[in-house]
Design a protein that fits this description.
single chain, 356 residues, alpha+beta, eight-stranded mixed beta sheet, 10 helices, 8 strands, rod-shaped
Length: 356
């Protein structure tokens, strides 16, 4: 038998012996080929149990895979949540905003029946008047108990009431507003669609029921009167109601009592009380609630002691301690004229004055 690397019948004749042939390991002679065992399957064997030459692919699964089904479910859940939130979202804007109405205002001067009572001690004036039990400043404008409405949430009703309160505080209690130095604190709360009317009222005041500054805020003629005390007495109510699916209305009815003295008066000069009753109607749509603004649609003011003969559209010109109303009343009213408001004047009841 030959070696491990030699053909079964030995080295072929004529071939160099040993390891001198460099192709010996790769060249096969005839005896090597005959010694190799060859086996070929017959046609019948190939058709029987023999393994197929080509591997079969697993059949395709019909329908969605688990991952695809999970993705579809997540998309459907997200879409359903978006639809639900859009229906429940209280801040969605209406398709068309309701037009903003111009402010309608009336001012009724209340003339005293005699001389205006006064005293040096402002606290004594308050203590002997119907305002004795009134609260001081913003504490006299508490927010009422509130609840959600059919189309507005608790937070939206609160926002409407709180914005109305802020307007009352800024327009009736801020010293810089009362003295006529500023209007910006009030203007900042007005709906943008009412600003033209607001600005026109201060640029060109008129007693026409549309452009009187004293319909927007309380301010005294700085040449006539000044605050004798910053402890202004206040009492009143706030109520909120839904008028339709897109509008909240707040009604404010408050009485403010101011202690006044002559402008530039020296210490020891008697002061007197001045009373203003304001009934204001505010309107809020969803845009106003979002921007913390408001629409003032009705302003009804009664104030005294005032002289009916004087124009109080631009500034209130109060009658002070010891003064009496001038004779005469407001200018005559023409019932045939349109677009204006009738001239009004009232009498200040004696019971409203302090007993000093």
């Amino acid at each position: 038998m030959g070696g491990p690397g030699e053909p079964p019948e030995g080295t072929p004749e004529g071939a160099p012996g040993g390891g001198e042939d460099e192709y010996r390991s790769v060249v096969f002679d005839e005896s090597f080929v005959r010694a190799a065992r060859l086996q070929e399957y017959s046609a019948q064997e190939r058709m029987a149990d023999h393994a197929p030459a080509v591997r079969r692919r697993p059949p395709l699964r019909r329908g969605l895979t688990r991952q695809a089904l999970l993705l579809v479910l997540l998309i459907a859940l997200a879409f359903g949540t978006a639809v639900y939130m859009s229906l429940r979202n209280p801040y969605q804007s209406p398709a068309a905003r309701r037009p903003v109405e111009p402010l309608r205002m009336t001012l009724v001067p209340l003339a005293p029946q005699g001389a205006v009572p006064g005293a040096v001690d402002t606290e004594a004036l308050y203590a002997h008047s119907p305002a004795a039990r009134y609260r001081v400043g913003a504490a006299g404008i508490p927010l009422p108990t509130y609840r959600r409405t059919a189309h507005f949430s608790d937070s939206q009703v609160f926002a409407a009431l709180n914005n109305a309160k802020q307007y009352l505080v800024r327009s009736s209690l801020y010293p810089e507003v009362l003295t006529g130095q500023q209007v910006r604190p009030v203007r900042g709360l007005i709906d943008g669609d009412q600003l033209d009317q607001f600005d026109e009222s201060f640029a060109h005041p008129a007693a026409d029921g549309r452009h009187a500054p004293t319909g927007w805020l309380i301010r005294f003629d700085p040449a006539r009167a000044e605050l004798a005390s910053d402890r202004i007495r206040v009492q009143g109510t706030l109520t909120a109601a839904e008028t339709d699916a897109s509008t909240l209305e707040v009604t404010a009815d408050h009485t403010f009592v101011y202690a006044l003295r002559p402008a530039g008066a020296e210490a020891g000069t008697p002061a007197s009380l001045f009373t203003v009753r304001r009934e204001l109607h505010f309107r809020f749509d969803r845009d106003d609630l979002r921007t913390n603004q408001l629409q003032l649609v009705v302003s009804s003011v009664q104030a005294g002691p005032l002289s009916c003969a004087e124009d109080s559209a631009n500034h209130l010109r109060p009658l002070l301690a010891g003064q009496t109303a001038k004779e005469g009343g407001p200018a005559g009213t023409d019932p045939y004229a349109t677009g204006g408001v009738p001239a009004l004047c009232g009498v200040l009841a004696v019971s409203t004055q302090p007993k000093v």
